[in-house]
Amino acid sequence: MAADTKGHAGTPAITKDTYNMLCVGIGGTGVIRASMILGWTAMNDGFKVRTAETHGMSQRGGSVSSYLRFGKSLEGPFMMEGDVDVLLAFEISEALRNLHYIGEDTAIIVSRTVVIPPSVLTHRMLKIDGEKCIGCGNCLAHCVPSQVFRGHDDAQKQFTLIQGEARQIRNGYSVVLDSCTGCTQCIIDEVCPFGAITAFNDWEYPPVPEIENDLKAASRNVIIVDADQIAVQAGNILAANVVMLGILAGIERVPLNAETMRRTVESFVPKKALEVNMKAFNEGLAIGKNWKQRRG
Amino acid sequence: MLGNEGIARGLYEARVKVAAGYPGTPSTETMEALAEINKFHGQEIKMEWSTNEMVAFEIALGASMCNARSFACMKHVGVNVAADAFMTATYGGSHGGFVLLSADDPACHSSQNEQDNRYYGLHALCPVFEAINIQEAKDTIKYAFDFSEKFHSLVMMRTTTRLNHARGDLVLGERVDIGERSYDFDGDSARWTFLPSNARIQRAKLLERYDAIREFSNDFPFTRLDIVDGAKMGIISSGVPYSYVNDALHNLGLEGKVSTLKLGMVFPFPEELMKRLYQNVDRVLVVEELDPFIEDFAKKLAYEAGARIEIEGKRFFSRKGELDLTSTIAGITKFAGMANPFVNIGVPTGGYHKASPRPPVLCPGCSHRSTLYAMRLVEQKSKRKFVYSGDIGCYTLGFYKPTEAIDTCICMGASIGLANGIGKLHDGPVFAIIGDSTFFHSGVQGLIDAVYNQNDIIVMILDNSVTAMTGFQPHPGTGIKISGERGTRIPPEQIVLGAGVKEDDLWIVDSNKLPEVTMAIEEAIAKKGPRVIISRHPCALHEASVTKMKPVPVCIDKEKCTNCMICIKSFGCPALTLSEEGEVVVNEMQCNGCEVCISICPSGAIKKKD
């Protein structure tokens, strides 16, 4: 590959023999695309490139990781844990999931995108404290799912009825059956006079401010941005990954030329989306440069 | 370039004439990339997606008999399907070059097991090649055809996910010159007809070939022995793990201080090279993924050669899952008795929140969700215990909450076979849940068995009219060929009726019309004998990519919504979620407009967006 852009103004002067980047997110957030752009940028800058992807079921809402290494002397696609130069997280909790790849000097660029896994909602459960419950049936009368079923008796769609009532009185105690949807309306409305009903979820998505605190505690080099919003302002939410790439180019933690990257982005996006993507890239670049300047 | 694209390029450069395969991660893109190349070359390669791996293997073998360079493409478990043909085919060997791609999946990224297919080489006496990177993969598979024709032997090219799905730079090569060939059947019937009398002769020839290849393995162009003078330690490795060894030695500053043997052909073993390594070092570490395939032989050879050296492998590396640079460095430093300088380079990760698990789920608008949901509804109403004998495909994700409507998944087509067994004993309706492509692959035989023996099962064919899990490949039910040209469409119902299922015992419903589906299931469970329901609706993702139409999303009527969460908790469509305020909202980016949720909402709060 011709190193035609080598030495261009704007190529950060860093000398190591291998650079490691990790792009993480979920299917549809542009992880693989961003990683491909980075790979081509590195190749166009004359580096040897290796990437590996973990994406078997990404289209079905799973996590995606793309490991990307470039440099002069490397063979395999994996870096050591703790040896990542830049972690790009296209979804905020995915940054948390990959903390074990972060080292002292890792720069972390995180999009404040929140995609709560559907399975978190389906894992929310209620439980009834048998010690407190006296079997008064108050909750049964208030149960929203069971009420709506009753009010729906005459509807032609018979299958909505057979879910039945979410609670039944059994042996004098209320029990939650399979068909409880965990809507927690009974808790919100405080229908249980004895406070016997509580919700629990073993798959909780951590609150975003706490994720941010964790990331900042783990690393001194964290940039958290509203990439989606910046992309929307640029004209299309789909350009969020290009915002992230712009930031990466701006902070100059790896020796990728911003101009090469801009041209690589150009070659990846359709003509009609070019303006939006260039705007997104420049926005990101400005954020990155600004961050670098403030760091001195 | 993707690893599989590199392999496809190698096939093109080797002038492959016939290529057949069955989609399976991580092998699929090889055939797709080759089909793409083929479009630019007047379809000179005769290609097909076959109904299953055995058929694909046999097609390639038949083509080899006609002197064509031929290629069969499958994932590791696909080789099990082809194994019946494979185990005997090696007796006869190849006429035109024959290469089988076995794409293994250590760590089960997208597979039901992580079997180590190098053992197939040992089992069938078939040479097995491995490559360390994309460039070498392209060059090796190109060379494999020359090799196959030189030794009249089949070749298995074994890759792993980290090669198939890796990306990297690739230098293209020239196409080889194989001259003008005639492709008529070679007429050597005694070689290809494995009657016992012929088979015994071919077995002897196979062993002769094997000996010749064993000898040659020491000169194999992609095998390399680097003896470092004075080095006490040696490493043997192959494939992608060798690339980790390379990087590990670099990071540890051990480059040029350790002797290495890199195997390009992992079977048969290059005994002379291994012995030469033994003579030069005191200790040998074998770095390989999964089972101790090389290690076991290395130890055996050392014993035979009387080499008094220490050989280790799996004592330092896991037999489960895949290796990476971190684990390779850990193993090498431990073996070398040195401190691992990289053990604490990461920040401490304790004390932080844990990210919630993110298992894959059925897509928004997936027609399988609606069918599986309908089955659970009928089960609850009937108060009987249904058994959901599942199969390989997207619908296996129905195992997870909230549908939890998959009880088994073993291998392609097993749903019907297992159901036949369970149905003999279980008191309650037994369903075999199988996708359309899987039904054609190997479900048909189980159905014929069910009809023949009058087994009491319901076969639920989830027909989304594409091989969705592996990325939308066509199959006999679509009638589209790999080239995009039209073939003959075979509707599954024709096969079902042809297999002897009575017309009264066959229901064909639209998956996304819940009342229709539930009614069919209710009718079916009231009857006995072999019954079939075909629940059909195109895969939402595939349909969107074909029609290029923007689906009209649904929206929530906030006045009516009681936040009962049935749509989220029981139905589980990812496009329906909770807002920060805790209200049910539609993610319009994700909604595919299937409208099934409209009919499950008890309050009539979900409606089509104006």
- Biggest sheet features of chain B: 7 strands, mixed
Specify the CATH homologous superfamily of the largest domain in chain B: Thiamin diphosphate (ThDP)-binding fold, Pyr/PP domains
Number of domains of chain B: 4
CATH C-level name of the largest domain in chain A: Alpha Beta
Give me the Rg of chain B, rounded: 27 Å
**Widest beta sheet: strand line-up of chain A:** 2-3-1-4-5-10
Shape of chain B: globular
The helical percent of chain A reads 25-40%
At the fourth CATH level, what is the homologous superfamily of the largest domain in chain A? Answer: Pyruvate-ferredoxin oxidoreductase, PFOR, domain III
Secondary structural class of chain A? alpha/beta
Major sheet attributes of chain A: 6 strands, mixed
What is the average per-residue confidence, as pLDDT of chain B, rounded to a whole number?
A: 95
Protein architecture, described:
The complex is a heterodimer of chains A (296) and B (610). Chain A is of the alpha/beta class and 296 residues long. Chain A has helices spanning 31-44, 92-97, 118-122, 138-142, 144-150, 185-188, 208-218, 227-234, 240-251, 258-268, 274-295; strands spanning 18-26, 48-54, 63-71, 86-89, 107-111, 125-128, 167-170, 173-176, 197-200, 222-225. Chain A folds into two domains: 18-117 and 205-295, Pyruvate-ferredoxin oxidoreductase, PFOR, domain III (Pyruvate-ferredoxin Oxidoreductase, domain 3), CATH 3.40.920.10; 124-200, Alpha-Beta Plaits (2-Layer Sandwich), CATH 3.30.70. Chain B has 610 residues and is of the alpha/beta class. Chain B has four domains: 3-219, Rossmann fold (3-Layer(aba) Sandwich), CATH 3.40.50.970; 224-336, Rossmann fold (3-Layer(aba) Sandwich), CATH 3.40.50.920; 367-547, Thiamin diphosphate (ThDP)-binding fold, Pyr/PP domains (Rossmann fold); 554-608, Alpha-Beta Plaits, CATH 3.30.70.20. Chain B is 39% helix and 16% strand. In chain B, the strands form five sheets. A seven-stranded mixed beta sheet of chain B has the order 2-1-3-4-6-5-11, with helices on both faces. In chain B, strands 8-10-9-12-13 form a five-stranded mixed beta sheet, sandwiched between helices. In chain B, strands 14-15-16-18-17 form a five-stranded parallel beta sheet, sandwiched between helices. In chain B, α6 links the parallel β5 and β6. In chain B, α1 runs parallel beside α6, α3 packs parallel to α4 and α11 (271-280) crosses α12 (293-305). Chain B is globular and about 80 Å long. The mean pLDDT of chain B is 95. The interface between A and B is large, with 83 and 75 residues. β2 (48-54) of chain A pairs antiparallel with β7 (166-168) of chain B.
